[in-house]
Amino acid sequence: MAEKDTVYSSKIKYSGVFSFKDFYKFCYEWLTEETGLTITENKYSEKISGDSKSIEIKWSGTREMTDYFKIEADVSFMVMGLTKVEVNENGKKIETNKGTVQLGIKSSLVRDYNGKFETTAFNKFLRGVYEKWVIPSRINEFQGKISSDSDEFLAQAKAYLDLEGKR
Fold first, then answer.
1. What does the alpha-carbon distance between residue 84 and residue 130 come to, in Å, rounded to a whole number?
2. Sheet of 38-49, strand order
3. What DSSP line would sit under 37-106, residue for residue?
4. Which residue in 143, 114, 148, 117 sits closest to 130, CA to CA?
5. Whole-number Å distance between alpha carbons of 160 and 101
6. Minimal CA–CA distance to 43: which of 26, 25, 31, 55?
7. 41-45, 53-57, 117-121: lowest mean pLDDT where?
8. Dihedral angle, C-alpha 102, 107, 113, 118, nearest 10 °
9. What is the pLDDT of residues 105-141, one digit of tens each?
10. pLDDT digits (tens, 9 = 90+) for 88-110
11. 29, 69, 123, 135: which has the fewest Cβ within 10 Å?
12. Measured between alpha carbons, how far is 161 from 151 in angstroms, rounded to an integer?
Protein backbone atom coordinates (compact mmCIF):
# COMPACT_ATOMS: atom_id res chain seq x y z
CA MET A 1 0.00 0.00 0.00
CA ALA A 2 1.25 3.47 -0.83
CA GLU A 3 2.57 5.70 1.93
CA LYS A 4 0.78 9.04 2.09
CA ASP A 5 2.06 11.95 4.20
CA THR A 6 0.13 15.21 4.56
CA VAL A 7 2.69 17.94 3.95
CA TYR A 8 0.56 21.11 3.91
CA SER A 9 -2.87 22.11 5.17
CA SER A 10 -4.16 25.66 5.39
CA LYS A 11 -7.06 27.92 4.45
CA ILE A 12 -7.92 31.55 3.79
CA LYS A 13 -11.16 33.45 4.29
CA TYR A 14 -12.36 36.57 2.47
CA SER A 15 -15.52 38.65 2.76
CA GLY A 16 -16.40 41.30 0.24
CA VAL A 17 -17.04 41.96 -3.43
CA PHE A 18 -15.64 39.51 -5.99
CA SER A 19 -16.73 37.69 -9.12
CA PHE A 20 -17.17 34.07 -8.09
CA LYS A 21 -17.10 32.83 -11.70
CA ASP A 22 -13.77 34.57 -12.35
CA PHE A 23 -12.31 33.43 -9.01
CA TYR A 24 -13.29 29.81 -9.72
CA LYS A 25 -11.64 30.02 -13.16
CA PHE A 26 -8.52 31.71 -11.71
CA CYS A 27 -8.05 28.95 -9.09
CA TYR A 28 -8.53 26.15 -11.62
CA GLU A 29 -6.13 27.66 -14.15
CA TRP A 30 -3.49 28.48 -11.53
CA LEU A 31 -3.48 24.92 -10.17
CA THR A 32 -3.38 23.26 -13.59
CA GLU A 33 -0.87 25.62 -15.24
CA GLU A 34 1.48 26.51 -12.37
CA THR A 35 1.62 23.19 -10.53
CA GLY A 36 0.68 20.76 -13.31
CA LEU A 37 -2.05 19.10 -11.26
CA THR A 38 -4.85 17.22 -12.99
CA ILE A 39 -8.00 18.55 -11.27
CA THR A 40 -11.28 16.69 -10.90
CA GLU A 41 -14.37 18.14 -9.27
CA ASN A 42 -15.76 15.68 -6.74
CA LYS A 43 -18.54 17.81 -5.31
CA TYR A 44 -20.52 20.89 -6.27
CA SER A 45 -23.59 21.78 -4.25
CA GLU A 46 -25.65 24.97 -4.13
CA LYS A 47 -28.23 25.95 -1.57
CA ILE A 48 -30.42 28.92 -2.39
CA SER A 49 -32.17 30.84 0.38
CA GLY A 50 -33.91 34.03 -0.71
CA ASP A 51 -31.58 36.05 -2.90
CA SER A 52 -28.34 34.50 -1.60
CA LYS A 53 -26.54 31.24 -2.33
CA SER A 54 -24.27 28.95 -0.37
CA ILE A 55 -21.92 26.88 -2.50
CA GLU A 56 -19.66 24.00 -1.52
CA ILE A 57 -17.04 22.72 -3.97
CA LYS A 58 -14.44 20.00 -3.51
CA TRP A 59 -11.61 19.33 -5.97
CA SER A 60 -8.93 16.70 -5.94
CA GLY A 61 -5.76 17.01 -7.94
CA THR A 62 -2.92 14.62 -8.69
CA ARG A 63 0.43 14.79 -10.40
CA GLU A 64 2.93 12.01 -10.86
CA MET A 65 6.42 13.39 -10.18
CA THR A 66 8.33 10.14 -10.79
CA ASP A 67 7.36 6.48 -10.94
CA TYR A 68 7.71 6.45 -7.13
CA PHE A 69 6.39 9.87 -6.02
CA LYS A 70 2.99 11.44 -6.60
CA ILE A 71 1.42 14.67 -5.34
CA GLU A 72 -2.20 14.73 -4.21
CA ALA A 73 -4.09 17.90 -3.30
CA ASP A 74 -7.59 18.38 -1.93
CA VAL A 75 -9.05 21.86 -2.48
CA SER A 76 -12.30 23.00 -0.88
CA PHE A 77 -14.41 26.11 -1.46
CA MET A 78 -17.10 27.21 0.97
CA VAL A 79 -19.03 30.23 -0.26
CA MET A 80 -21.64 31.72 2.06
CA GLY A 81 -24.15 34.47 1.42
CA LEU A 82 -23.28 34.93 -2.26
CA THR A 83 -25.47 37.66 -3.75
CA LYS A 84 -25.44 39.62 -6.99
CA VAL A 85 -24.45 43.28 -6.69
CA GLU A 86 -23.74 46.12 -9.11
CA VAL A 87 -20.56 48.16 -8.77
CA ASN A 88 -19.34 51.20 -10.64
CA GLU A 89 -16.06 50.69 -12.44
CA ASN A 90 -14.79 53.66 -14.44
CA GLY A 91 -18.33 55.04 -14.68
CA LYS A 92 -19.81 51.73 -15.91
CA LYS A 93 -22.12 49.51 -13.92
CA ILE A 94 -20.80 45.97 -13.67
CA GLU A 95 -22.68 43.02 -12.21
CA THR A 96 -20.57 40.97 -9.81
CA ASN A 97 -20.94 39.05 -6.53
CA LYS A 98 -20.64 39.77 -2.84
CA GLY A 99 -20.19 37.22 -0.10
CA THR A 100 -17.78 35.25 2.02
CA VAL A 101 -15.46 32.62 0.58
CA GLN A 102 -13.28 30.18 2.46
CA LEU A 103 -10.64 28.37 0.42
CA GLY A 104 -8.65 25.49 1.84
CA ILE A 105 -5.96 23.19 0.49
CA LYS A 106 -4.49 19.99 1.89
CA SER A 107 -1.51 18.57 0.00
CA SER A 108 0.15 15.19 0.38
CA LEU A 109 3.20 13.35 -0.89
CA VAL A 110 2.43 9.77 -1.90
CA ARG A 111 5.35 7.34 -2.00
CA ASP A 112 5.29 4.02 -3.88
CA TYR A 113 1.84 4.81 -5.30
CA ASN A 114 1.95 1.80 -7.64
CA GLY A 115 2.71 -0.56 -4.76
CA LYS A 116 5.89 -1.96 -6.33
CA PHE A 117 7.44 -2.54 -2.89
CA GLU A 118 4.32 -4.20 -1.48
CA THR A 119 4.74 -7.63 -3.02
CA THR A 120 6.73 -9.30 -0.20
CA ALA A 121 7.90 -8.57 3.32
CA PHE A 122 11.48 -8.35 2.06
CA ASN A 123 10.47 -5.70 -0.49
CA LYS A 124 8.81 -3.69 2.29
CA PHE A 125 12.06 -3.88 4.22
CA LEU A 126 13.96 -2.71 1.12
CA ARG A 127 11.57 0.24 0.77
CA GLY A 128 12.34 1.28 4.35
CA VAL A 129 16.08 1.13 3.64
CA TYR A 130 15.60 2.96 0.31
CA GLU A 131 13.62 5.81 1.89
CA LYS A 132 15.79 6.16 4.98
CA TRP A 133 19.25 5.89 3.46
CA VAL A 134 19.09 6.40 -0.32
CA ILE A 135 16.47 9.10 -1.02
CA PRO A 136 15.80 11.18 2.13
CA SER A 137 16.95 14.34 0.34
CA ARG A 138 14.54 13.67 -2.55
CA ILE A 139 11.68 13.21 -0.08
CA ASN A 140 12.58 16.53 1.60
CA GLU A 141 12.87 18.21 -1.80
CA PHE A 142 9.39 17.06 -2.90
CA GLN A 143 7.86 17.99 0.48
CA GLY A 144 9.38 21.48 0.18
CA LYS A 145 8.01 21.87 -3.35
CA ILE A 146 4.54 20.78 -2.26
CA SER A 147 4.56 23.21 0.68
CA SER A 148 5.80 26.15 -1.39
CA ASP A 149 3.33 25.48 -4.26
CA SER A 150 0.39 25.15 -1.86
CA ASP A 151 1.39 28.27 0.05
CA GLU A 152 1.83 30.20 -3.20
CA PHE A 153 -1.62 29.06 -4.40
CA LEU A 154 -3.30 30.45 -1.28
CA ALA A 155 -1.24 33.67 -1.53
CA GLN A 156 -2.23 34.15 -5.18
CA ALA A 157 -5.90 33.45 -4.42
CA LYS A 158 -5.85 35.94 -1.54
CA ALA A 159 -4.13 38.58 -3.69
CA TYR A 160 -6.70 37.99 -6.45
CA LEU A 161 -9.59 38.46 -4.02
CA ASP A 162 -8.00 41.57 -2.50
CA LEU A 163 -7.54 43.12 -5.96
CA GLU A 164 -11.07 42.19 -7.02
CA GLY A 165 -12.55 43.78 -3.89
CA LYS A 166 -10.74 47.08 -4.46
CA ARG A 167 -12.11 47.68 -7.97
1. 56
2. 3-18, 92-111, 69-89, 52-64, 38-49
3. -EEEEEEEEEEEETTEEEEEEEEEEEEE-SSSEEEEEEEEEEEEEEEEEEEEETTEEEEEEEEEEEEEEE
4. 117
5. 12
6. 55
7. 117-121
8. -110
9. 999 999 999 988 888 899 889 888 988 999 999 999 9
10. 877 788 889 999 999 999 999 99
11. 29
12. 16
- Check residue 87 and give its pLDDT: 84
Q: List residues bridging with 4 in a β-sheet.
A: 110
- The pTM for the full model equals 0.90
DSSP state for residue 118 in the 8-state scheme: G
**Residues facing residue 17 across a β-bridge:** 98
Sequence-distant (≥ 6) Cβ neighbours of residue 63 within 8 angstroms: 35, 36, 37, 38, 70, 71
> Which helix (H) or strand (E) element contains residue 107?
strand 92-111
